[in-house]
Amino acid sequence: MDWTAVTVITSSEAVEAVSYILTDEGAQGVQINDAADFANLKPGKYGEHGEIVDPATIPHRTSGAAVTGYFPAKTFVPELLPTIRQRVAKLHDYGLNPGEDEVTSAVVDNQQWATVWQKYYHPLRVTNELTIVPQWEDYQPTQKQEKLLVLDPGMAFGTGTHPTTKLILQALENVIRGGESLIDVGTGSGVLSIAAKQLGAGDVQAYDIDEVAVRSAQKNLDLNPVAKDVKVGVNSLLDGIHTQVDVVVANILAEIIVPLIPQAFANLKPGGYFLASGIIDDKAAMVRRKMLDQSFVIDSETKMGDWHGIIAHKPAEDEE
């Protein structure tokens, strides 16, 4: 089956918002070409045959980002383009810079997509313990503590190099000690749930508002035996969820984290951790303030490029 690719030229800070817009309009997967990703890459095995290559020599964007959504052939894309353009332009209203705000479309066949994808998607060590590995790669851990997150995100391109992903995976590595119950909000590809299980978490629930994302997450969970018992389903944030867990984790936009904060607090045990990423520079103070207003204690805040990751906890009974 051929696909219609709709590409939005935008800014790095608007990548996640534009990805959401394309998915919400019916895209079955999203490819991101972000100059910020290459800025964080070090020389590694990026060659066609696994040879060491300097990322600076790989053709890539030098500024901003191109976000491409893939729509099935049955979708009449020309009807969607005006709506997509309008929604991207309105990102100004949410304090995000839409960048060039250019929207184009083109037909792409499956074989062309697969060739490009597999050329650039290789195993990548993203934290001290975690390595993201595409399903088609025969990769074995090189160190005793190394744990693999096997992914086949279908039409969704990703290398795990985006700062928001790295920040939240590092936060999980810092917090998980073994046996924790955890909720993954906005699970997407399921990578955070898989990482949590690899790090030793116990009961894990994963939710996403998008049915396509839930199906993608389930496929990736199935590729990782350690995550076979993760419960994944469709839900808007933590609406209607009433439980008590040790950890709530979310890698989503700051504007979506804000309404999640009181829900996370209500669903955490005393002493439980709230890990949040996807927070652009100029939204960090707002998120921090909302957390403190909710009585969270902020344990640490890390930054990578323009992005922030926060580890906070609900006060234990002896802290109150």
TrEMBL record:
GO biological process, one term: methylation
Molecular function, one GO term: methyltransferase activity
Keywords noted in UniProt: Cytoplasm, Methyltransferase, Ribonucleoprotein, Ribosomal protein, S-adenosyl-L-methionine, Transferase
Enzyme class: transferase
Pfam families: PrmA (PF06325)
SUPFAM superfamilies cross-referenced by the UniProt entry: S-adenosyl-L-methionine-dependent methyltransferases
Subcellular location: Cytoplasm
NCBIfam families according to UniProt: prmA
Stored PANTHER family: ELECTRON TRANSFER FLAVOPROTEIN BETA SUBUNIT LYSINE METHYLTRANSFERASE (PTHR43648)
Name of the protein described by the UniProt record: Ribosomal protein L11 methyltransferase
Gene (name only): prmA
